[in-house]
Design a protein that fits this description.
With 220 residues, the protein is of the alpha+beta class. It contains 4 helices and 11 strands; from the N terminus they run E-E-E-H-E-H-E-E-E-E-H-E-E-E-H.
């Protein structure tokens, strides 16, 4: 099963409660669903959820390089150099970003954000469409800030073959998995991997393990 959700602003992309903040549980009551990847609390738009661990792995794991498309409202008007830098790669603290597709677009017809973004009367804003195949933490925001145009609003509108379309904030759509829209190697993976497969990272402790002390009367 696939569920497409338009995650509202200021909602955590998780089901577990945290400090009284709104989560996906406020909008979806279907059990055994898991978000495939993350979307920051201060970002809006498409979240793909599934009850299939194999599919969650394919959608969210960086090695599969699934394209994600965003509409991004930035402060100011990016010039040719700024747009070229965003396309070719931006130097961030964790390394240079991979090439991306970036273009300016007309302001899209969207629902109002609550609360609204900050407006400065003497500073215009620009809408960009940015498509990435990476998934670094807060990557789009860091990229636009690095070229001098902080992100004011960020909406994810597509993940691979799944598109936000007309879903309004908090609305979701339940779909059956259409194998025809999937890459060939995804279909192979899904047909040859057990249905209960979930890729998990091996847990490691942040702290070094303490060695047990030997009793005082221990004789070697």
């Amino acid at each position: 099963m696939i569920v497409l959700l338009n995650k509202p602003f200021n909602v955590l992309c998780q089901f577990s409660p945290q400090n009284g903040l709104a989560t996906l549980k406020n909008y979806i009551s279907i059990s055994n669903l898991y978000p495939s990847g993350r979307l920051d609390r201060d970002s809006e738009g498409l979240v793909v959820l599934t009850d299939d661990g194999r599919l969650q792995h394919l959608i969210s794991h960086p090695k599969h390089k699934l394209e994600k498309r965003y509409w991004v409202q930035v402060e100011g008007i990016p010039d040719t150099l700024a747009l070229s830098t965003l396309r070719q790669g931006v130097v961030l603290k964790d390394g240079i970003t991979a090439p991306a597709q970036v273009k300016t677009v007309k302001p899209p017809e969207l629902w109002p954000r609550i609360p609204p973004i900050r407006y400065r009367a003497n500073i215009p804003t620009t809408w960009l469409e940015i498509s990435l195949r990476e998934g670094r933490n807060r990557q789009v925001r860091r990229m636009t800030a690095a070229v001098g145009h902080p992100t004011l609003r960020l909406i994810r509108v597509a993940i691979g073959p799944w598109v936000l379309n007309d879903l309004q904030p908090g609305e979701y759509q339940q779909l059956e998995l259409d194998f025809a829209v999937l890459p060939d190697y995804w279909r192979t993976f899904l047909s040859t991997t057990p249905a209960n497969h979930v890729a998990r990272k091996k847990k490691t402790s942040r702290w070094p393990q303490k060695r047990k002390s030997k009793p005082a009367n221990h004789i070697k």
